[in-house]
Design brief:
By secondary structure, this protein is α/β, with parallel strands linked by helices. The protein has helices spanning 3-17, 25-36, 51-61, 77-81, 115-127, 162-166, 179-187, 203-213, 220-234, 244-260, 268-279, 291-301, and strands at residues 41-44, 66-70, 82-87, 92-97, 104-108, 129-132, 135-138, 144-149, 170-173. The model has no long low-confidence stretch (mean pLDDT 89).
Amino acid sequence: MDLGRARDVVSAIRSAVRTYYAGNDEALDTALAAILAEGHVLLEGPPGVGKTTLAKLLAQAMGGQFKRVQMTSDLLPSDVIGAMVWDQAKGEFRFRPGPIFANVVLVDELNRATPRTQSALLEAMAEGQVTVDVNTYQLPRPFLVIATQVPRDTGGVFPLTATQADRFAAKVEVGVPRKEEELKIIRMADELMSPQIKAVASLKDMVEAQEAVKRIRVDDSVAEYMVNIIDELRRSNLAEPLSVRASLWLYRMSRAKALMEGRDFVTPDDVKAVALPVLRHRVVVSEGFSPDSLIRSVLERVPVPRG
């Protein structure tokens, strides 16, 4: 698939999702960039702001399968990835896939699950597969996890470790909609009970678009600009050091952003556009400071390449 066709596929999906999704533009665009970059998204915000609707509509628009997992403290890893069950008719064990076997998986309130169950997602997200007993099972492509979490000051939560949060390509903080957005939502109250849109692309289209992203050019000066941003953040006395995944996802998500903008090369503006969602969950700052403000200040300080 050429880059122009890939951009058209993504634009069609975005427009289709917008039929019923009146929420956060950053959440929608970040989710689209993440699936192009073969990453996953962490959403944080209050209930009832359209997170489930977004995930469901994305799956429908690309002709994929959607599954939802409600995380609770008593959920086991096998409830997510699947388990071996005894088939009495055949007299043998067979694998029963869990809800992780879908194209778009909404993991709701991830930080209400125990660390053991949270960790069950790591192999799936990093390698597109799960291992049960001694057998490995490949997950479908494309594969996108949209995980939500409740604020840390909410009772009954198990905060994600830095390693777990680092596995997500991006994080978006989803707030309540603006007045005009909320008006649009209540006008669609009946349809939103069970939103349905026709597929405007196929799973094959999305996989080919993922491959097209890998052909987006990144000039050496722009790649160095990305590393300079990460290096400047590391010099900012963070409570946790930034891993190399920060640079890798800044690179991958910038390429996806360039494709969505209809270009075959990455610009510094693409890097800036994805910097907040890519970095905010990796930047652990002292109390009284916010990750977003630190990232913005670094973007202002680091020289932008010219030409």
